[in-house]
Write a structure and sequence with these properties.
The structure holds two protein chains of two kinds. By secondary structure, chain A is of the alpha+beta class. Helix content of chain A is about 20%, strand content about 40%. Chain A has a domain of about 55 residues: SH3 type barrels. By secondary structure, chain B is α/β, with parallel strands linked by helices. The chains are: A alpha+beta, B alpha/beta.
């Protein structure tokens, strides 16, 4: 018998009749997304088709969404038989699961949905750092859920898979060592935005400004808003890519965890109870979602 | 499912080339017929690194054999294995890429250029558009076979590997050389029935690092017949490609043009086109997820060309499923060929690598070597003609196509169908400036 990293939803929860609330938007979809992100909304939500969908009525308490939706929210039922509604269910599940994993002390990099990497920051099983004069390189070895919300009418499948991310942190005073490398700018007011990476042309440490070149344009970026993406190309040029990749892929000779499943087994010890996990879609526990670990007969 | 049987010379069959050649003494299915003389193996190494000269040791062992202790590491002399000999040439140094091109050009002028292979030592792994791709591009354009080998591999061979590792290495290396000289080491023992052709659709977006980014999309189709034999390729460059939320959008006119060319080629290869177009499937394998508009256009073109049946199958190399063996308390490695449906007719997990009987001893348990993370392919049905769905046959075909990588004797370690893997390589070469289409697939090995 094989145990797996695949979890199927409890049949008692029918995802072709998924309960939630919806409020009609009085702003554009993009504005609603932006505002909800900005306000760091902590309950599962999704914006589509002139509505904001959510699973917890506390979201509308104290008029929190009055400038986004008109009137009172209504009860709604979503079905994962329809592509758009399956996407809404899947997205809200990702957010609910994020809250659950954060409550278990995991940190998350890379967003909430399919590219999230969850890890324990203080645990060397999850993080390897290499410090050089030009900066500190971190390989984050973690895990993330992959939710399939539409493949089976009425039910949901979730895989927990290993994931990794690389990060570069540049100390004050070392930016000049990155001239000629690709950099990005954090999003924010008064920060120039550009697609992809720009090349760092020069640095004024005194003024805290980096001058970057993107296509035919030159931008001034505050150094505290600039970062070096942990791309394989950049890490390779700095000679740290291989050890970081070895760590991320469990190829280190004396690794404490031998492979991805040994790693996931440690994670499962934290998040599972009797080979199931449950999380709530709302603060009152009215919409619990339970998932069962699947096993396979030996082939 | 059982592993596909492979056919060697004189109708001999086995599932494992290492077992067939090293233990049972089988000979290749077909030796090259167009060799004008004893093939010459040239070797070029970077002038800056004298250690690369130890590559001569690899070439000497290639010719003379290297007998390790284990069955799979007993590499016999080239002549004994392949029925003809090779003649390693003196080591030559190159200062830079122009010297490599000069050598390729020189060999291209030989009347018996098909009997020459140039082994080029690369200082490091190449990024897209780097040394490897430049050399391969020139190699294809000049019709001269090259075998690129990493400096690290040369050094490891001389200093770190023992005779078991070396024997193991030589099986793969020798098959690469043999295939590049026009040999066919094995073939599938039976036709992949119900199929008129396989098409692998690959797209690449290349980035040119000149100040910043220029996007250039490549769309490439690699074709194989119902035996898995390559029958051609088509590609188009400077194509508009866009990705949004993991879905790739491709210029539909390009898809239409390339598919028409591919289907014409396929039709020309069929023994009985009218019957086959009515009865058999055109199978399209894709690695990326494409927009519905792309799938719909492919469907329309196939229909317009008179092919009645088709399936578009998305093969995800890193399927998310991982298994834990409750008996051994270790990661689960099912036997190669094991599959399960997550959604019948729609999504399956297929282990093209897995536990494998490397040992000649029947008592020993099958095991897998050289891989610490064994994961299945995730095979998704994307679209098809009316009434079609993902079937056991589709999974068997994918499994069979993984067995046709002729540049490796160690096929139980190869996960993806050769059409998909080499199709992607062709697309990467096109992204590096290659424009020629009509070359034997062995140039992609």
């Amino acid at each position: 018998m094989y145990l797996s990293n695949l979890f199927e939803s409890n049949p008692e929860r029918d995802y072709s009749r998924f309960p939630c609330y919806k409020g009609r938007l009085k702003v554009s979809t993009d504005t609603a997304w932006g505002e909800l992100r900005e306000r760091r909304v902590g309950v599962p939500y999704f914006v589509a088709d002139e509505y904001v969908y959510f699973t917890d009525l506390t979201l509308t308490e104290k008029g929190f969404l009055n400038d986004i939706i008109s009137g009172n929210p209504k009860e709604a039922t979503l079905s994962n038989k329809k592509a758009s509604e399956a996407q809404a269910i899947g997205s809200m599940l990702y957010r609910a699961l994020n809250l659950r994993l954060i409550s278990l002390k995991f940190s998350c990099v890379g967003g909430i949905t399919a590219d999230s990497v969850y890890y324990l920051p203080e645990d060397e099983t999850y993080v390897k750092t290499i410090t050089e004069v030009e900066g500190t390189y971190s390989a984050i070895r973690g895990f993330g859920p992959k939710i399939h919300s539409m493949i089976k009418p009425g039910s949901i499948s979730i895989f927990f898979e290993t994931r990794h991310a690389f990060r570069v942190s540049v100390p004050v005073g070392s930016w000049s060592k990155w001239i000629g490398f690709g950099v990005k700018a954090a999003k924010g007011k008064d920060i120039p935005s550009f697609k992809g990476v720009a090349i760092l042309d020069s640095v004024s440490e005194k003024d805290g400004i980096g001058f970057v070149r993107h296509e035919r344009n030159t931008f001034r970026i505050p150094l505290d808003k600039m970062y070096v993406p942990g791309s394989p190309g950049t890490l390779g040029k700095r000679g740290v890519f291989e050890p970081m990749l070895e760590f991320a892929n469990f190829y280190e000779k004396y690794s404490k965890v031998q492979d991805s499943f040994a790693f996931l087994s440690k994670v499962f010890q934290i998040i599972l109870k009797d080979d199931t996990f449950t999380f709530n879609m709302d603060s009152k526990g009215k919409i619990p979602c339970t998932f069962w670990r699947m096993s396979f007969e030996k082939g | 499912m059982d592993p596909p049987l492979l056919e060697f010379d004189a109708g001999r069959r086995n599932i494992d080339p290492v077992n067939a050649f090293a233990v049972l003494g089988y000979k290749p299915y077909r030796v090259p017929e167009n060799l004008a003389s004893v093939p010459k193996i040239h070797v070029l190494g970077p002038a800056a690194d004298k250690k690369c000269q130890s590559v001569t040791m690899i070439l000497q062992d290639l010719r003379e054999g290297k007998m390790g202790t284990y069955a799979r590491s007993k590499y016999k002399p080239f002549l004994e294995t392949f029925r003809f000999d090779v003649e390693p040439q003196n080591y030559e140094e190159y200062e830079g890429e122009p010297d490599v091109y000069r050598k390729i050009t020189e060999v291209s002028q030989y009347p018996d250029k098909n009997s020459h292979v140039i082994v080029v030592i690369s200082p490091e792994k190449s990024q897209l558009g780097g040394f490897y791709y430049h050399v391969k591009k020139i190699s294809i354009e000049k019709g001269v076979q090259t075998q690129i080998i990493l400096k690290k591999t040369v050094e490891n061979y001389a200093n770190i590997m023992n005779d078991n590792n070396r024997g193991d290495f030589q099986w793969n290396f020798s098959f690469g050389i043999f295939s590049k000289l026009g040999g066919t080491p094995w073939k599938l023992d039976r036709v992949l029935d119900g199929v008129s052709a396989f098409i692998s659709l690959n797209t690449v977006t290349s980035f040119q690092e000149e100040g910043i980014i220029e996007r250039k999309g490549i769309v490439a189709l690699e074709l194989a017949n119902c035996w898995g034999d390559p029958i051609g390729r088509f590609f188009s460059d400077k194509v508009k490609l866009e990705s949004e939320e993991g879905v790739t959008y491709v210029d539909l006119k390009t898809i239409d043009t390339l598919m028409k060319k591919a289907l014409d080629q396929i039709e020309g290869e069929l023994a009985n086109p009218e019957e086959s177009k009515e009865r058999d499937y055109v199978i399209i394998h894709v690695q990326d997820r494409y927009a519905d508009s792309v799938y719909n256009r492919i469907a329309e073109t196939i229909k317009a060309k008179g092919f009645k049946k088709f399936k578009i199958i998305h093969i995800q190399e890193q399927g998310p499923l991982r298994l834990y063996d409750t008996a051994s308390l270790k990661q689960g490695w099912p036997r190669a060929g094991t599959y399960w449906y997550l959604v019948p007719g729609n999504i399956a997990f297929l282990y093209t690598i897995g536990r494998w009987q490397y040992s000649v001893s029947e008592e020993k348990e099958p095991y897998i070597i050289g891989a610490r993370d064994v994961s299945p392919l995730q095979v998704n049905y994307a679209k098809g003609s009316e009434g079609s769905k993902l079937s056991d046959d589709d999974l068997r075909h994918i499994y069979s196509l993984t067995r046709l990588h002729y540049y490796s004797a160690d096929i139980p370690r190869i996960k993806m169908p050769f059409t998909v893997r080499l199709g992607a390589r062709a697309a990467h070469l096109a992204a590096s400036g290659l424009t020629a289409l009509d070359f034997p697939i062995s140039f992609l090995y």
